[in-house]
Amino acid sequence: MASSDTTSCSTPKRNLVGLGWLFLFFWYFSGVTQALLIPSAGFVGSRRALFMSFMWLAPVLLFPRFTKQISAVIGVILWAASVVSLSYWIIYGTEFSQSIIFIILETNAQESQEFLSQYINLPLLAGIVVYTVIACLIWKRLRPVYLPRPVAAGAAFAVLALNLCTPYIDYMNGKATFEESTNKLFNRMETTAPWQFLAGYLQYRIQLNNVQSLLLKNSSLSPLDDLVDRNGDTSRTLVLVIGESTTSRRMSLYGYPRKTTPKLDALKEKGELFAFSDVIASRPYTVDILQQALSFASQEEPDRYLTEPNLMNLMKQAGYKTFWVTNQQTISAGNTLLSAFSQQADIAKYLNNHRAQTAGQPDQVVFEPFIEILADSAPKKFIVLHLFGTHSRYSLRYPKEYEIFTGRDHVPENLSNNEAEIFNSYDNAVLYNDFILSGLIDFLSKNQSNSFLLYFSDHGEEVFNDPTHTVRGRNEKNPTLDMYAIPFVLWMSPEWRKTHPSASDFGSMLDRPYSSDHLIHIWSDLAGLSYDRFQPEKSLINSDFKPYTRWIGDPRVKNGLRDFDAIVIKKPAPPSNASTAQQP
What we know:
alpha/beta, Alkaline Phosphatase, subunit A, 2 domains, two-stranded antiparallel sheet, 15 strands, elongated
């Protein structure tokens, strides 16, 4: 019999070599692209692609006589899916992600045709041909692997179970919901051909439904009562810049010894910039704080963003044309609320289509759409710019020319070399953020519009700045000053100052203690808007401002709120351990 003949000539060494070639063939279609992405997206995608590729061994182990035929069919499917990802990397140098699927599904046929005609060229086709030829050469080396039937069945079951079932262990143990476990499986699959299309589409549908649900609830809300715009019908451009993971404690604008914000420092010295010195975030996580800062929600009333109008509603009701430009991910499981906020804008521009938050895409990409928006003919414009800021990994947040801080000057002495490198990369990211913000202000200034720009970071970041020098990141249960202290910066054009004489007289207001969960009130005050829900005592620049308890912690947990000023010691910026600050 054929099976006995082939089995008799099989040896452990021959089977091992055969398994190696089979795995290489199946891995090739996902692993090559993920390997090319390591410099920008890290090793996570490669690790997942490696793991998921094992599952294709199951059918060839169960039916070894049909190894060539099975692998050819699977190979064609994997090739077709992987060519799309590889082509996207060749064109853009980045990953074909779930966000790209979102954009494709939102793009009309004519735009797709224009895209294809623009980017399909001979170099791209040549790359695809080489990629295909290598796959064919590997396929020619494939040979059947004959194992005892029980062993083959057990191995096939094992590779399928490890890939498809392990994400549900926490669900079976009651530690996660079915949806959370399914999302974990989708995250594992989205780096591997052809599953990135299926997982991406399913995630797209889930998140789109969530966003649409929020938008539907929002559309049914009653407008704000008694809305008055003190600026009347004058033309103006108001810009809100949302930073990411930037603590004011690492900015020379706030006394940090390294010159990490030289351009903002210069604007402040000229009297063109106001830096409020005692502002904190109420939560150290992006979505949690922005659902408060961009609405009437607060630590005391965290769910008001669901039942009352938000900042986007307010500005549209006041007659502004609204814009949202983001360098954060377009649509993902954790960004439903921000997607809903952005979808409320008249025009939304999504610039970051990477799968991973850690992927590198410097914030300079916001410049071009910002310039385009400034040229828009609308008399009243409200622009939200959401930056990637100093999000971890810090070294991916800036171009190479901004790698200025590299030595041990001003680095805590007991940091290891690796920790010192991370410490320096964070300061470099802050320096690049200074370039971005000053660039936006420069564009706005040259536009000669009646305008102002308000910048704040969603939260801070602890990067070995605590005296213990053991903490990096954010931990709500173990707060440090750097996790919560954020920059809160205001720039106003000469045209705006002329019509708002009191705008230049903030004086003692700059040192007032404030929390960004009440941002909507200071924004309304700056924009000259009053309405039934406006509370002047919660506006940092209002003469009726009243200090209040700045709560931090999780408001949805029993006894989860704590008084920031009672538990976090306000320390000055760390002293220099060198005679002169390192200059960019």
